[in-house]
């Protein structure tokens, strides 16, 4: 099956584009922050600078690694699901479950290695820019030279490869356990069910996020800016937990929106049917919306609370420490926002392009291009509403406890402008990516698209 995997990569490169981009971006983020460890290990680095570099690499890089692994797993799962019919046909002509699983794992491993290798020069530039930011904010001495070496490269290649192979094994497990006949049926009709591993992981992450929120409001009450470290974890962990519940959340929100959507005509009626039939594929695009909304809103509002809060007595936090934490927060938000935005666009383009045949069939039975576009628009709106709603809930898990710990009030007095900006960005990215791709897909003649 190794030979088949190589031929599959060669002749169906476009099918792996979304997974490749996720791995490439993930490797850039991993090596960018890991290069701070290479820099810290260089000659002439003072203890204060070494501590700042290590903090940036371990805290921000560690959370970045978790989110990258999660995004790679989500994207790769979507890619394999889109090839469900191909896997079923391989099994129907004699391929064993082990052979199909091996093909999926080999494909993922090869894509991961190529993506990580191509990410090296970009990560080297990213690390240099990150070090420049640390110098400009006074956290690292100006005379320290930049180092990009074995630590960054080994972590980038190793973690990207392991994440891709682990995701492939989990995805292949479901595909290989199904009989060929059942796999063919599953490829044409999806459900919103969640596997046991995903369900357990979702509850674990969500429970951990809620626990961090409780600890922030109780144990760290009156501890000053020290509470932000735990509060930030509450936002990230809760966002990941709710993102794992994406299929269930999307189906639940669509059930609430079903009546008004059906009242919007044929496009709305088709939207309800499509979300119910393609929940798993659409949920893949919901994941980055929840992560973007939850982490960006939680982190920026906590920083706003801190900026307006009075210094706490009895803490050892200095002005330099406060500046370092503020820099960490903005780096986290920037990293997550950029990564989630690209993943959102990447996932929507892959999912919408895959539906070319579906769009062609709809046009052959009477749907106009305008109706198809309105259907895609309604689907995008449902995704954005769901993602912003539950991303906001994840942010509340961090904002409310931190506001209680620092100001004694439940909600911060910051207004809604920042939140509306984040929600508006999520909606704009979702609608632009889905509608632009659908419009380009509709340029293909209906007969040609339907027979693809």
UniProtKB/TrEMBL annotation:
Its main location: membrane. Residues 63-173, 331-445 form the ABC3 transporter permease C-terminal domain. It comes from Kribbella deserti. It is a multi-pass membrane protein. It is found in: Cell membrane. Pfam families: FtsX. This is FtsX-like permease family protein. The chain crosses the membrane at residues 12-33, 53-79, 100-131, 151-172, 199-220, 240-261, 282-302, 330-354, 375-404, 416-435.
